[in-house]
Amino acid sequence: MLDFQGYGPRLLEGAWLTAELAVLSLVLALVLGLLAASAKLSRSWVLKSIATIYSTAIRGVPELVLMLLLFYGGQIGVNVVTDQINAWYGTDLFINLNPFAAGVITLGVIYGAYMCETFRGAFLAVDSGQIEAARAYGMSHWLAFRRVRFPLMMRHALPGLNNNWMVLLKATALVSIIGLTDMVRVADQATKATHQPFLFLIPVGIGYLVITTISEVGVAWLRRRYDTGFKTGGA
Amino acid sequence: MEQWLAHVAPFLSGNDIFTPATLAQYWDGMVTTVQLVFVALVVGIVLAVPLAIGRASRSWLISGPIWVYTYIFRGTPLLIQLYIAYYGFAFVPGVQDSWFAFFINNPLYPALLSFTLNTAAYTTEILYGAIRATGKGEIEAARAYGMSSFTTYRRIILPSAFRRALPAYGNEVIFMLHASAIASAVTITDLTGAAYYVYARFYSPFPAFIFVALVYMLLSFSIQGGFHLLEKHMLRHLKPA
Questions:
Q1: Which of A1, A19, A128, A161 is most exposed, with the fewest beta carbons within 10 Å of its own?
Q2: Are A103 and A24 in contact (CB under 8 A)?
């Protein structure tokens, strides 16, 4: 076996943190993206403009800058709010924003903006006759969404979602700059200590390739599921 | 620049953070970022054109290695690639006395190397997709006119592939601009590095990072607008009548 000079367990812990961070931010991004896309497609211009500002502004700024802003500014911002609440109600509230939560929130908020665009396009690609048919069957709005609109939309959204997920996974590496001990940070520290860059950086790179390859299998399964009932050229 | 700074100085009175000195810092950072991204993109596209043609080759001896290259560079974070370029050569014994010392003594070179190889990998895939989308009839017609493979590529395939690749390439340019922010992780004072410096100096994250976010936004939207105009000009024949 490879000798990681005692860094082996820490690398594994780092890999686990990367995976956790990626999955949790993916969930948050999907929820935010779905909400923002629905807001963009809604009839209310207030919701529409909020969602448009959100998705446009976030996509114009590098992930790292937003991360630095939230990591260094987040606690100050939270303190301002809690101080104000304390002043009003005489409470003694203090919320500690830990780095992991800040990482999940930043990545989730950023990729929510990208997911929003993917979902919006996919919702627009759903044939409106399908939804009319569902309504004609007497389904409520929510039931029609759950049974007809969402599954049909997912078929169009999956390639884009998969793309965003790949970018998100690689963007988790940025948290190492801010101080979370993900696998990139462990490799960086180990490299500086042992002066053997390839020993640590290349396995970490392979780690990312392994995660992407595993997730390709999952995406292929989802794609088969949402393609049910549609004839595709390949499969 | 100095003149301009002298000009705006009166408007900044009473402002502790945005002094002419910090604005100059931001300006220098922007110049570094733009230079870094521009050079990486230009070299990247020069590399990507032959690579994309090779990737479309029928022989897997040519297309296989190129596929491996793009798979690795697109499948791993740019930060890892940057660290490998930055640390990879630095600890080789005797490198400080060799001709190669310039590369490890200035972090701009490892950053340029990793950014270039990264964007070349993405651009290769974009161009490859566009080449593959060329209509079969177009190529058959070119062959029927007696064009060689080389001439077919030069006259028929590449011009239309470049047009088709334009929207995706515009995204790649913005992606590269945003990705270049990690240059600050290897001590380069780019835009993000300048913002970090201002933050650390005044311990005020909001003005420092929000200002730089607006600068990036402005750059992104200018690039987007530029590509939009270019698309309008070059893809006019595809517009629905």
A1: A1
A2: no
ipTM: 0.85
Do A85 and B225 form a contact (C-beta atoms < 8 A)? no
Please name the member of B90, B91, B209 whose beta carbon is closest to the beta carbon of A73: B209
- Quickly tell me which residue has 């939270």 as its tokens: A78
Reported pTM: 0.87
Residues A191 and A14: their CA atoms lie apart, in Å, by 15
Angstroms from A41 CA to nearest CA on chain B: 23
A110 contacts on B by Cβ (under 8 Å): none
| Token pair listed for A48 | 């529409």
With b for 16 or more beta-carbon neighbours within 10 A and e for fewer, the B169-192 pattern comes to bbebbbbbbbbbbbbbbbebbbbb
**Residues A166 and A118: beta-carbon distance below 8 Å:** no
Helices marked H in chain A — which ranges?
A: 8-41, 45-59, 63-89, 99-125, 128-136, 141-144, 150-171, 175-178, 183-194, 197-226
Contact status of B177 with chain A (Cβ, < 8 Å): yes
**Cβ count within 10 A of residue A13:** 14
d(CA B7, CA A18): 48
pLDDT tens digits, one per residue of A102-148: 889 989 999 999 999 999 999 988 888 888 899 899 998 889 888 88
- Kindly tell me the burial class for residue B126, based on how many C-beta atoms sit within 10 Å of its own C-beta (0-12, 13-18, 19 or more): buried
Which domains occur in chain A, in start order?
8-226 (1.10.3720.10)
Q: Does A201 touch chain B (CB under 8 A)?
A: yes
Cα B82 to Cα B84: distance, rounded to the nearest angstrom: 5
Q: A2: helix, coil or strand?
A: coil
Please state, in angstroms and rounded to a whole number, the distance separating the CA atoms of residues B131 and B123.
12
Would you tell me which CATH number, out of the four given (1.10.1740.10, 3.30.420.40, 2.60.40.10, 1.10.3720.10), belongs to the domain B2-238? 1.10.3720.10
Count of A-B CB contacts under 8 Å: 111
Nearest-CA distance from B138 to chain A in Å? 23
Angle at alpha carbon of residue B178, lines to B72 and B32, rounded to 5°: 105
Alpha carbon of B67: minimum distance to chain A alpha carbons (Å): 14
CA A153 to chain centre: 19
